[in-house]
Design a protein that fits this description.
This protein has five helices and 17 strands. With 282 residues, it is of the alpha+beta class. The protein folds into two domains: 138 residues, Diaminopimelate Epimerase, Chain A, domain 1, CATH 3.10.310; 103 residues, Diaminopimelate Epimerase, Chain A, domain 1 (Roll). A hairpin with a 3-residue loop joins strand 12 and strand 13.
Length: 282
């Protein structure tokens, strides 16, 4: 299969990928090209008039010792500091491309190590969780383990802000309304991802996901990591858990060197956005 940057003709080549239904448009800019504007990002994200995605991921040249640098954009055109499933998808692509078993990737958040987990799975170290209120960031000093918000959530940073709520029944939550309201809570000056978590056992949780700038998604790597960290900090689970998301299953292991995220990836198709569409999209 040809690499994306080898596709002939004018226009903007891309790859469509997903991790458990958490879907991405990937732009390979290692040989040149600019990040899309916010307006173009929103146009590509349109599932009726564009391609559609939860996040757009751009691959840029890495610095010394790095295989690539990744930049993530949300469907609303805003920038995201981390995207665990997109990182895993791109890591798998780069490993397949270079015949590698491991790669190192730079994001806005940190340098991340990714590796082949065998059985078609890919594992990435998302780095240590951010637990300090200023670094998450929150608007004022509070206990990040018990926020002064109705529902008693936990705050975590995983390259982006998270609010994790624990409930007796996930099915009883109106996630579209709840997530939309909580994303803009004034305690989170940069908005927040929202996870609603039902603890199934000491090593198993089920979560509903509302992503900042994207809305409800079938899966989210950073949200799964934040939910697992929050559950462990509360003493509801151990540090290694299976996370059931609407799109399937992810495994999270909070180790001394960071939070490791493991699961499947899928490369769906390659395409080229036409010059005519790009001109109209602005």
């Amino acid at each position: 299969m040809a690499a994306m940057h080898d596709l002939p003709g004018p226009g903007l080549p891309f790859i469509k990928m997903h991790g458990l239904g958490n879907d991405f448009v990937v732009l390979d800019l290692r040989r040149g090209g600019a990040l899309p504007t916010a307006a173009l990002t929103r146009a590509i994200a349109d599932r009726h008039r564009g391609v559609g995605f939860d996040q757009l991921a751009a691959i840029l040249p890495g610095e010394q010792g790095e295989d690539a640098r990744l930049v993530f954009l949300n469907a609303d055109g805003s920038r995201a500091g981390a995207c665990g499933n997109a990182t895993r998808c791109i890591a798998r692509m780069l490993m397949d491309e270079g015949g590698l078993s491991a790669v190192r990737l730079r994001t806005d958040h940190a340098q991340l190590a990714a590796e082949d987990a065998e059985g078609g799975l890919t594992r990435v170290n998302m780095g240590p969780p951010v637990l300090d209120w200023q670094a998450i960031p929150l608007a004022r000093e509070v206990d990040t383990l018990r926020l002064p918000i109705e529902g008693d959530p936990v705050a975590t940073g995983m390259g982006n802000p998270h609010a994790t709520f624990f409930v007796a029944s996930l099915d009883a939550v109106d996630l579209p309304a709840f997530g939309a309201a909580m994303e803009h809570h004034p305690l989170y000056p940069e908005r927040t991802n929202v996870e609603v978590v039902e603890v199934l056992s000491p090593d198993e949780i089920r979560i509903g996901i509302w992503e900042r700038g994207a809305g409800i998604t079938l899966a989210s790597g950073s949200c799964s990591c934040a939910a697992a960290v929050a559950a462990a900090r509360r003493g509801l689970t151990g540090r290694r858990v299976t996370v059931h998301v609407p799109g399937g299953r992810l495994d999270v292991d909070w180790r001394e060197d960071g939070v490791w995220l493991e699961g499947p990836t899928a490369r769906v198709f390659e395409g080229v956005l036409s010059p005519e569409w790009l001109a109209e999209a602005g």
